[in-house]
Design brief:
This protein has about 475 residues and is of the alpha/beta class. About 35% of the residues lie in helices and about 20% in strands. The chain has helices spanning about 15-25, 65-75, 120-135, 150-160, 160-175, 185-190, 195-200, 205-215, 230-240, 285-290, 350, 355-360, 385-400, 430-440, 450-455, 460-475; strands at about 5-10, 30-35, 45-50, 50-55, 60, 80, 90, 100-105, 220-225, 245, 250-255, 260-265, 270-275, 280, 310-320, 330-335, 345, 365-370, 410-420, 445-450. The strands form five sheets. A seven-stranded mixed β-sheet has the order 8-7-16-17-18-15-19, with helices on both faces. Bound molecules: flavin-adenine dinucleotide.
Length: about 475
């Protein structure tokens, strides 16, 4: 019997794990090589204060059924939950931080309000800002609905004005992508928004329609016990299916070898070379281009620039004052808020009922993130030493939640850093991705996937990894899914 074609997947983040699963289910022999000591990439969990807490992604967008479908296939269906109402707040600049904090309207997407005239949105924008935003309903869709190269910032500014941009959309975009709306490709971060606007006539109507299309009625959902279980279940299934899973093995070279590929790898015990009939590159963007460029030099100009590093500080605190969840599920921080360095705070025990039940009254899990595009080495972020980050996190949590938290209240703490962990889709992203895909399509038996191409977030990453792996399996003449 001729053995089935062998495929090597480079990178064991969610993209690589998902691709490996698709390939092995198509009957291929699969090896997955991961540089670090564990699988999951930016999805991971850590034990802290006796809880197993997500230290990377902690939820997924409900805009598509991609993640629930995978969770169901992995036997995790019953664990899908939506966050508790009443949603997050935004901290705006102001003399008095407490009165400058407002609940975020929950009717739209990425901070774009479905109805800028509703009371909560008016309170946030002020009368003049709300009036300007309401003009969106009367403006014709115009070229912004169809023109190429439109940023999220330009779309929002033109349709709804500066106040909506700086007070709503920028804090949300900063929290999710660590990026400025003027640098985000709207079609990549809000797929379908512009075409829906063209159809329905206004940005507000489009934002409302996209939000309503989210099946769970909530923009995000999570898993009881944390999102890292998706990674755990994937790894378990791959092991059972016989995938050769390796950690601490970095791929350092990729060369064409007839119709297939030769890979050079480095690991603690030395180097080795492997032959493969097909390869999936599922690393971060810089590493992916560096690996593929010797065979495909046309990719060199497309190498992504550096992206901001993020630092996450998790605090477990003992504070009965937080039982009232003073800022809902958390706070997104607008630029220019004096004395606060964090860009976002998640009150995890307010957001997730399962975690609250585990923690019990008076014990709270707070997660603060630092690092935005445009940060310098002096800004609080990836490069700040742990002890300083902790001091900032404690002070910021006190300021943002309006509750004094001292060292004595902190039961446990943790810092996680991700250099270049949040690639973002800057304007022209779609065209750049198309150029990269076209170059890769000319190479035999090669697929490339991951957040740097598909877009940040588990929905984009998992959906794309499945598609690319299926295309590669087709090209290698694999059978249908097992
Ligand atoms: C702090 C944080 C919070 C987030 N929260 C959310 C959230 O709540 N919801 C959501 O949907 N998304 C969230 N995201 C985004 C989401 O986690 C990512 O979009 C997604 O996990 C990216 O997966 P990936 O496989 O493309 O990349 P990665 O996770 O970066 O994986 C790439 C892997 O490739 C490996 N690698 C690189 N080079 C090599 C090499 N030469 N050889 C072998 N291996 C190599 C790396 O070690 C890494 O493990 C968050 C991201 C971060 C950083």
């Amino acid at each position: 019997m001729i053995p089935p074609p062998a495929v090597v997947v480079i990178g064991g983040g969610m993209a690589g794990l998902t691709a490996a699963r698709t390939l092995v289910r198509r009957g291929l022999r699969v090896t997955l090589l991961e540089r670090s000591g564990r699988f999951g990439g930016t999805v991971d969990a850590r034990m802290l204060g006796g809880f197993r807490l997500d230290s990377g992604a902690e939820s997924f967008s409900t805009r598509s059924a991609v993640v629930p479908a995978l969770a169901e296939e992995l036997g995790l269906t019953g664990r899908i939950v939506t966050p508790d109402a009443p949603g997050a707040w935004v901290q705006l600049p102001g003399e008095d931080l407490q009165s400058a904090a407002q609940p975020l309207p929950s009717s739209g997407v990425l901070g774009i309000p479905a109805d800028p005239t509703d009371a909560a949105t008016r309170a946030l924008l002020g009368p003049a800002g709300a009036l300007r935003a309401a003009r969106d309903a009367d403006l014709p869709p115009g070229p912004l609905a169809t023109r190429p190269h439109v940023s999220l910032g330009e779309l929002v500014r033109t349709r709804m004005g500066e106040e909506v941009l700086t007070r709503l959309v920028a804090p949300v975009a900063g929290g999710v992508f660590s990026a400025d709306p003027d640098d985000l490709d709207v079609d990549s971060v809000a797929p379908g928004l512009r075409s829906t606007m063209g159809r329905l006539g206004s940005l507000g109507a489009a934002a409302g329609a996209l939000r309503q299309a989210a099946p769970a009625g909530s923009a995000v959902a999570g898993l009881v016990g944390g999102m890292a279980q998706l990674r755990d279940a994937l790894v378990q299934e791959l092991l059972t299916a016989g995938v050769d899973l390796r950690t601490a093995e970095q791929v350092s070279g990729l060369t064409r070898d007839g119709a297939g590929w030769t890979l050079a790898t480095e690991h603690a015990a030395g180097r080795r070379t492997l032959s493969a009939d097909g390869v999936v590159v599922a690393t971060e963007g810089g590493a992916a281009v560096d690996l593929m460029a010797p065979a495909l030099p046309a990719l060199l100009p497309e190498r992504p620039g550096s992206v901001p590093g993020v630092a996450l500080v998790t605090l477990i605190v003992d504070s009965a004052d937080l039982d009232a969840h003073p800022r809902g599920t958390g706070v997104l921080v607008a630029r220019g808020v004096d004395g606060v360095a964090a860009k976002a705070l998640t009150h995890a025990t307010a957001k997730w009922a399962w975690l609250r039940e585990q923690a019990g009254p008076g014990v709270h899990v707070l997660r603060l993130s630092f690092g935005r595009v445009g940060d310098t080495a002096e800004d609080v972020g990836l490069l700040t030493p742990d002890a300083d980050l902790y001091r900032h996190a404690l002070a910021d949590a006190s300021a943002l939640l309006g509750v004094r938290l001292t060292d004595a209240a902190v039961l446990d703490r943790d810092v996680v850093r991700g250099a270049g962990a949040l690639p973002h889709a800057s304007v022209g992203h779609r065209e750049r991705v198309e150029r990269i895909r076209a170059v890769v399509a000319d190479a035999p038996a090669l697929a490339v996937t991951g957040g740097w191409l598909a877009g940040t977030g588990l929905v984009s990453v998992i959906g794309d990894a499945r598609r690319r792996a299926d295309q590669l399996a087709d090209a290698l003449g694999a059978g249908g899914p097992l």
